């Protein structure tokens, strides 16, 4: 029996995802800003630190109203639509801008805006939108991997307070953030999805600690520890034991991520390399059929990646939720990036493994860095296995 997607995912033959002139102009405006502020010195400092955040850069986004353009003006936004927000994300990826902490802050701020108490909204939202407050994510645990619902970090109620004990893995930027958006188990007697609660834990709280963990790409992430961390109930987000529903608001956003712009950057550098003679007056690599074939394959996978992501944006604009379409975008684009980076490194040869900041490295070492970076993207925001499970169960209606 043939499997069919739900009718809402089938697009008419005349459906297109070209940008309208206003959105294209906004994209170019953002690109001009990034070219101006992401100087070689800034890029080198970020690369050497391994930290995808820069306070001055983030404040610059706020100043230009690029931090959350689709938010209301009262929060520093521009009331822009989902397409404008999408091209902003694409440009940030395309330029490899240090925005991860800004993105997680904005994501949690959106959740607080939806389900937070008035007190928490007053305390967090304005500062987060000004770039004065930063929030990192505390979901994954050392023994749980992608099974976020198996969290063992405990939060025990003591009067009006909660006492938290446990640890979280891959808490990227947890060493510089102001808060951790933390998933904790509050009822061990309930099924694992139903005994969880979300908290916003101040990193200044006694008993909190962050320890560096370095990834293959040179990025610093963290394991964070919570040793009798005591916080008031005002730091709880959502209902007690209702954390899975709150978490779902963030996971849906993460699962709908697209990584096509990283492919676009790789394609650009591959084309630049292919158009440059290996020696003065010599032939260029692009004249070789195999080079053209491999670069064309990257271009085709980039096109598919961008279309899958833009389908998600179109669905949001139409009032639909890209439950399965988001994971489709994520799993295809990250696996395409992994395939393409390996293929281009093989094409360029041993010189492609010269690292960033190495003077003799082709294209300033972007091939080496993209290869190492790509290997982690199939894990970020849910592994490919998790994404395929969502597609199978919630998109195709297959049994568990």
UniProtKB/TrEMBL annotation:
Belongs to the acyl-CoA dehydrogenase family. Residues 136-223 form the Acyl-CoA oxidase/dehydrogenase middle domain. Keywords: FAD, Flavoprotein, Oxidoreductase. The keyword Oxidoreductase applies. Its cofactor is FAD. This is Acyl-CoA dehydrogenase family protein. SUPFAM superfamilies: Acyl-CoA dehydrogenase C-terminal domain-like, Acyl-CoA dehydrogenase NM domain-like. Residues 24-132 form the Acyl-CoA dehydrogenase/oxidase N-terminal domain. Residues 256-395 form the Acyl-CoA dehydrogenase/oxidase C-terminal domain. InterPro entries: Acyl-CoA_Oxase/DH_mid-dom, Acyl-CoA_Oxase/DH_mid-dom_sf, AcylCo_DH-like_C, AcylCo_DH/oxidase_C, AcylCoA_DH/ox_N, AcylCoA_DH/ox_N_sf, AcylCoA_DH/oxidase_NM_dom_sf, Mycobact_Acyl-CoA_DH. Gene3D superfamilies: Acyl-CoA dehydrogenase/oxidase, N-terminal domain, Butyryl-CoA Dehydrogenase, subunit A, domain 2, Butyryl-CoA Dehydrogenase, subunit A, domain 3. Pfam families: Acyl-CoA_dh_1, Acyl-CoA_dh_M, Acyl-CoA_dh_N. PANTHER family: ACYL-COA DEHYDROGENASE (PTHR43292), ACYL-COA DEHYDROGENASE FADE29 (PTHR43292:SF3).
């Amino acid at each position: 029996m043939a499997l069919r997607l739900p009718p809402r995912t089938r697009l008419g033959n005349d459906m297109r995802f070209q940008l309208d002139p206003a959105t294209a102009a906004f994209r170019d405006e953002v690109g001009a800003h990034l070219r101006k502020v992401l100087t070689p010195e800034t890029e080198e400092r970020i690369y050497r630190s391994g930290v995808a955040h820069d306070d001055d850069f983030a404040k610059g986004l706020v100043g230009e109203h690029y931090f959350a353009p689709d938010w209301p003006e009262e929060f520093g936004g521009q009331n822009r639509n989902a397409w404008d927000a999408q091209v902003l994300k694409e440009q940030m990826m395309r330029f490899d801008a240090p925005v991860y902490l800004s993105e997680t802050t904005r994501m949690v701020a959106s959740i607080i805006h939806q389900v937070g108490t008035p007190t928490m909204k007053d305390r967090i939202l304005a500062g987060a939108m000004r770039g004065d407050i930063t929030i990192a994510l505390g979901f994954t645990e050392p023994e749980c991997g992608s099974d976020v619902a198996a969290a063992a970090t405990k939060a025990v109620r003591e009067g009006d307070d909660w006492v938290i004990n446990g640890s979280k893995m891959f808490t990227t930027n947890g060493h510089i953030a102001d808060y951790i958006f933390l998933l904790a188990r509050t009822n061990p007697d309930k099924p694992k999805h139903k005994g969880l609660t979300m908290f916003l834990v101040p990193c200044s709280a006694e008993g909190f600690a962050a320890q560096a963990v370095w990834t293959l790409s040179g990025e610093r992430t963290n394991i964070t520890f919570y040793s009798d961390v005591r916080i008031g109930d005002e730091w709880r987000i959502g209902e007690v034991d209702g954390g899975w529903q709150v978490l779902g608001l963030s996971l849906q956003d993460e699962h709908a991520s697209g990584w096509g712009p990283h492919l676009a950057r790789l394609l650009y550098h591959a084309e630049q390399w292919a158009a440059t003679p290996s020696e003065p007056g010599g032939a260029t690599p692009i004249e070789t059929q195999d080079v053209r074939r491999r670069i064309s394959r990257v271009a085709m996978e980039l096109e598919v990646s961008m279309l899958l992501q833009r389908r998600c944006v179109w669905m949001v604009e139409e009032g639909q939720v890209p439950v399965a379409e988001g994971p489709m975008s994520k799993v295809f684009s990250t696996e395409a990036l992994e395939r393409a980076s390996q293929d281009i490194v093989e094409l360029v040869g041993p010189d492609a493994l010269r690292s960033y900041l190495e003077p003799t490295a082709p294209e300033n070492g972007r091939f080496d860095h993209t290869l190492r970076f790509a290997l982690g993207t199939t894990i970020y925001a849910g592994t490919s296995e998790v994404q395929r499970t969502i597609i199978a169960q919630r998109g195709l209606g297959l049994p568990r």
